[in-house]
Amino acid sequence: MNGSLELARALGHVRNAVVAFVAADDPTGESLFLAAECLDLEGLFAELGVEQEFLDPERDAATSLAAASESLAAARPLVPLALWARLQAVRARAAR
Amino acid sequence: MTATVGTLLDDVHARAWDLCSRSSGSEEGTSHEQLAAGYLAAWPRLANAALRVLDAVHVEPVWLDDASAVREVLRAIADEKSLASPSVAGSEVAPAASERAVRAIATRLGVIADLLSGQPAARTEVDRAASLGLQANVVAVVHAVAVTTLAALGDQQEFETARWLMRGVVARSERQAATPTLERAGRYEDVAAISSEDRSLDGAIARWLPATVVALGSPRRVTQSALQFAAGDALILIATAGTVLYAATQLGLVPHDLADRARPTLVGAHEAWRPLVSWPGTVRLHGVRDVEQFEASRQLRQVITDNLRENRGWLPPGTMADRFDLASLLGSLRRGMHGLGNVSVAHFQAMDRLVRSPGQLWIAASAVTQSAYRGSATIEAACRKGWVPMPPGEPAGLALLADAKQALAATAVAVAALDATSAAAASPSQRGAGALQWDRGRIVAFGADDHPRLFETVQSSEPAGARSERRAPVRLGGPQQSSPRR
Question: Rounded to a whole number, what is the distance in Å from the CA of B314 to chain A's nearest CA?
């Protein structure tokens, strides 16, 4: 396992989620707030010095977030709990 | 509740209304001379305060100054020392209630002038209309107090000079005082005294704006995160403004035609900011997030979510109206959009600096399009999926700059269109025969006829939203009514 690579992939997935949320045609506005929360997440990645890995977009934002979660789980020893908790909170909000 | 120029004007008009009402009855223990002397003693202060408001918003020199005649006579009064001199009968006694009442009006006009002192010069037609409306609202108060003072002066010999001055004020202010209230509403009424300690939406915006502008304006602190956060917040603010505008329109607080004009501009601004939230994956700007901006952004989102959203959606218009004063809320959003205008300028300037200065942005080596910059180092970096400083003129950077420019332009258009909705909801103006009327919380002067009815009462009508009013004329000399509120 390459933890750094998994972190980079996780960030790539989060970025894809931002793109998907912003592009969503959502009259409730919820996707805008989810995009903003993903930007918060990106900020945490930036503080860790993670550089993003380019990834093809998943079919939707929720899938991208799930993929980000898998990547973080794979790099668990390197992942601060705050990052993990925040990602799961965003996923929960997106799934509601 | 946040004090705004609008609420202060409401208060000033209500006080002027009370003052006029009192003049029709006699004040206990006060002679007519003392009453008149009290009014006169406060006039220099009132004139100074009114002048300050009239001068608070700078306008384009080419625009005609509708208030020049009023300014002239107000300056004369402000310099007229004899008004409060002991030679005027009654002025040697302690300040009468009449003097205190006019002083209270003057003080509030002074506060309005203070609030407006930070406003940029009026440049657009929307600004100009708002500026004229503001002037009319101030001049209407001056006119009402002048009419009341003139009535109190009677025909005493010692008040002859004062009578000339007051007649001058009445004559020069009448035209502006007669401006229908519908034509007076404008964006300057939204200008507010906001504390950054405030936990309201205004307070959240007041914290968010400087934090964001500072983060974007500093060449060292600006990061991709900062730019994306600003864009994300812009989307949320615009969506919130659109939602509140829709609710206010549904409830009849904003005329449909104005709302119909504003809505597409908000949609346009929303579309323009979208690509700036999700930057192209091949471009990036190093740096950690700015903590202050991040916190301010999170608070702004939290306040909006806590107050205006429920069950993952926006509150329905009816619920929103039950919980908030929608007109005030829309005023907050108009202020917020002005703040966003500042952010969009800072955002564009930051992007311009980053794109045009070499070595600021980074680009994925494989994404470099200009052959002149595809040297061995770039190819080597591309093979290991690395990054290189973005070469000048790279399309990816120019596209970002073009997006930022588009967001700036679209935001400016949306701000102006939303400003235009600050005009009050249309309703037929009921012009009666009185010299002064109460219309939508403001005093309006009308020409007197043979049977003057100086005042009229206003009652809140039952349905139809927040502040519709109906009026019933009351004959001069009838029982006093409490002053209405908007």
Answer: 6
